[in-house]
Amino acid sequence: MANFETVTVETDLLICGGGMSMTGAAVEAAHWAKQHNLKVTVVDKAAMDRSGAVAMGLSAINQYVDLKSGNNSVKNYVDYVRNDLMGITREDLVANIARHVDSSVHLFEKWGLPIWTDADGNYVHEGRWQLMINGESYKVIVAEAAKNAIAELGDNGEIFERIFIVDPLMNDGKCVGAIGFSVREEKMYVFKAKATIIGMGGAVHVFKPRSSGEGLGRAWYPPWNTGSSLYFTSVAGAEQTCQEVRFIPVRFKDGYGPVGAWFLLFKSRATNAFGGEYMVERRPELENWAPYGKVKPIPANLRNYLGMLDTMEGKGPIYMRTEEALQKIANEFKDDPKAYKKKMKEIESEAWEDFLDMTISQAILWAASNVQPEEQASEIAAAEPYFIGSHSGASGCWVSGPEDIQNDDTKDEYFWGYPNMTTVSALFAAGDASGASSHKFSSGSHAEGRIAAKAAIAYIVDNPDYLGADQAQIDTLTARILLPLDIFEEHSANTSDPEINPEYIKPKMFMFRLQKIMDEYAAGVSAQFTTNKHMLEKALDLLAVLKEDSEKLAAADLHELMRVWENIQRMWQASVHVETMYFRQETRWPGYYFRADTPKIDNDNWLAFVNAKWDGEKWEMIKRPVKYMF
Ligand code: SFD
Ligand code: AMP
To answer: What are the tens digits of pLDDT across the range 498-553?
Structure first.
């Protein structure tokens, strides 16, 4: 049997993840922990400087409410999010983030993030809520601030990198820490904590990606976020919400370059191969999705849907008309050749920087395929589905809102003591890990991490006694986590190629199987994002067999052990996604997925959250009311 050394770490607060939300959590936790002499421990699967979705950097901060200007209110932001999510959102959570997000943005600037300013020194907006940044080093900057804050705690602050968190430690229904393993050394890590915050991102590669072969790892969402948050919190018994609300971004094809700057800053159009503009030609379709089809901006999924209708009708490829947009901007200077040339150079470099700041591979793809954006249009396409509760999807834990925003009608439903605590005591969630609070993006995730950390410290102050972790449970979990190494060890010599063996399945093959199921039956790219009750039943049957086979996953080394657990987590994400789409008998987010057997929006029956809770054997589905507060 694999025999790893066990390292035990005792702490007050455990922060799992080192991305946008948890770097925010670290900074805030350090502040409050110092006042109460508490210990804070941060654990990341990777190196915080470049971990998570922002590893490559970003070119925009997508949530800045700018409350100080008086131009926007918290209500304006809540209205935007409610509309974009076709009416389904936790307004208390969105409002709580919206009222705090500006301060996170100001901290980023203080820590050294260059935010574009105009000649008057005002921030340059990409759109109403978005700011342009020189963000190549965004993640390094927020990680440094988090590390500095933890370092200030002295012995009361610890950071562990390259530790892959797998399971929660539970005692009497309460989360008392976490267990994981080092991805570099043969060591198990047991973290005993009075409160735990989960910010381990969303999930990608649950669906078959468009990229294949040598490009396989290239997806829009970062390949290293694999459903760890969903798995951990579900196993702990935390209720999930909006797990049907996947996100499908439309992106520059194959490199996944962002479109926001093109649509909002450069005011570009997207047209089909015949020159038709789907946002104009298909406008009447929006009537079918009233009242949300009539709002401004048009919800992201409906924008997607109009483009998809063109593709499905054989009018593709769809193009971002970069050449037209750049020419139009430069044409303002057409009477002055020198000024024209200068402007063209300026916007050309802005266009390249948009990619170089956050999607370097798209810039490489442009360079490699001789694309000059000022001369030719570039293809855009809908990506495969991802789970990212912080962007325009909504999947994540069902968490408590803040007390002061509730009213008599919402208090019992949306508040249970500590902001961002899940339905499991002592377990908190933020960023992609918390649901029904979309459009928080990088800045809002950071702010939400801060909210969660402040609440978690308050929880520890109110509940100072450690319940204790059960050694038998730790032993069982250790053996289970390491089992794939034992399986490989026992059987790998039976065949000449260790990749192929009747006694086990390697994680990569397992992932391909999962992706095929999801792609074909659960509304993936190949199925044109369409499914129905029968296809979902088929997916559920196949996922049940896959789950049986997951017991036979094998790992040749530590790296593969990580791959095993990543794919088990993806399987859990798939399972709750399919169950939730199956339960919701309507189509509410065309452009994300379409249920062909219930093809219409049904506000009478389904203007509600669909929540799911793992009861130890199956998902219990729960319908919860949507309450409007603003
Ligand atoms: O526009 C474990 N996002 C954008 N936000 C913006 O504000 N502006 C943009 O320009 C953005 N663009 C964008 C964005 C996302 C992506 C994927 C792309 C482009 C390509 C959204 C934000 O990035 C997003 O909202 C936040 O990053 C969410 O924060 P958080 O904390 O929920 O997730 P994370 O940052 O990915 O961090 C996850 C952390 O968890 C770690 N981890 N640690 C221990 N054990 C495990 N088992 C773990 N599994 C994961 C990770 O290492 C990481 O530290 S735009 O183009 O859309
Ligand atoms: P993206 O690059 O698509 O992630 O977009 C960045 C930001 O701009 C996000 O807040 C998007 O919701 C928003 N956005 C992108 N395209 C549009 C559009 N056509 N209309 C309105 N908002 C958009």
So the answer is: 999 999 999 999 999 999 999 999 999 999 999 999 999 999 999 999 999 999 99
Residues 6+ apart with CB under 8 A from 116: 123, 124, 131, 132, 133, 134
DSSP state at residue 200 = -
Choosing from 32, 96, 167, 220, the catalytic residue is: 220
Output the 3-class SS for 430-474: CHHHECCCCCCHHHHHHHHHHHHHHHHHHHHHHCCCCCCCCHHHH
Atom of ligand 2 nearest to the CA of 263: 19
Question: Would the CB of 303 count as within 6 Å of ligand 2?
Answer: yes
Atom of ligand 1 nearest to the CA of 449: 31
354: annotated active-site residue = yes
d(CA 363, CA 11): 44
* Length of the chain as a residue count: 630
CATH number for the region 480-622 comes to 1.20.58.100
**CA-to-CA distance for 358 and 55, rounded, in angstroms?**
8
The model's pLDDT over 124-172, given as tens digits with 9 standing for 90+, comes to 999 999 999 999 999 999 999 999 999 999 999 999 999 999 999 999 9
Query: Taking Cα atoms as reference points, which of 564, 604, 566, 612 lies closest to residue 586?
Result: 604
Number of the ligand 2 atom closest to the C-alpha atom of 249: 3
Q: Is the peptide bond before 291 cis (omega within 30 degrees of 0)?
A: yes
What residues pair up with 595 in beta bridges, in sequence order?
A: 531
Q: How far is CA 622 from the centre of its chain?
A: 23
Specify whether 36 is catalytic: no
- Cα 329 from Cα 343, distance rounded (Å): 8
- CA of 149 from ligand 2 middle (Å) equals 33
Distance CA 427, CA 233 (A): 8
Q: Which of 12, 28, 44, 126 is catalytic?
A: 126
222: preceding bond cis by omega (within 30 degrees)? no
- Give the Cα separation of 391 and 247 in Å (integer): 8
Q: Residue 163: which residues within 8 A CB-CB, separation 6 or more?
A: 43, 44, 45, 180, 181, 182, 183, 189
CA 541 – CA 554 distance, rounded (Å): 23
The predicted pLDDT at position 3 comes to: 85
Give catalytic status of residue 62 as yes or no. yes
Q: Which atom of ligand 2 is nearest to the CA of 441?
A: 10
Distance CA 115, CA 110 (A): 10
For ligand 1, atom 57: residue with the closest CA: 258
For the record, the structure tokens of 448 come out as 């939400």
Nearest to 21 by CA among 131, 109, 104: 104
Token readout for 229 is 């948050």
Q: What are the start-end ranges of the H helices in 112-220?
A: 138-151
**pTM recorded for the entire structure:** 0.98
Is 532 known to be catalytic? no
CA 354 – ligand 1 centroid, Å: 18
Question: For residue 19, how far is its CA from the centre of ligand 1 (angstroms)?
Answer: 6
Q: Which fold has domain 5-112+137-245+386-462?
A: FAD/NAD(P)-binding domain (3.50.50)
Domain spans in the chain, listed from the N-terminal domain onward: 5-112+137-245+386-462, 250-382, 480-622
**First-residue to last-residue Cα distance in the chain:** 58
CATH level 3 topology of 250-382? Flavocytochrome C3; Chain A, domain 1 (3.90.700)
Nearest to 157 by CA among 145, 147, 165: 147
For CA atoms 608, 610, 613, 615, the dihedral sign is: positive
Residue listed under structure tokens 């997000």: 101
